[in-house]
Amino acid sequence: MATALEPCPFCRSNHLHLAHSGLDYCVVCQSCKSKGPHQETLERAISRWNETSVRLGVQPLPETATSESLADRTQPEPRYFVARG
What is the largest CA-CA distance in the chain? Predict the structure, then answer.
């Protein structure tokens, strides 16, 4: 059964990738690099991704949105730092 992916709950992009690593699956946004929860089945990974988008009330970007208009958005600050020394 095919299930449509909802847009990214963080950047509203539809540029999504289904990732499989070892024993689990997850949905990855290729625009902002956010990842959905890792699940044992592909169907469950898609379902959890869609639940997040629906819960946050995310609407897809209009078809007229261009890469230039998306590039104007500010990038979030990193949440972690690497200590060297």
Answer: 51
| Alpha-carbon Rg for the chain in angstroms | 15
Pairing type for strands 16-21 and 24-29 reads antiparallel
Predicted model pTM: 0.62
- CB of 73 within 8 A of CB of 25? no
Question: Across residues 30-53, what is the average pLDDT?
Answer: 90
pLDDT of residue 63: 60
C-alpha separations of 28 from 6, 23, 40, 58, 76 in Å? 12, 16, 15, 16, 17
**Domain map of the chain by residue range?**
1-59
Instruction: Name the band, by pLDDT with cuts 50, 70 and 90, for residue 83.
Output: low
Give me the pLDDT at residue 44, please: 93
Residue 54, CA distances (Å) to 8, 12, 20 in order: 10, 12, 23
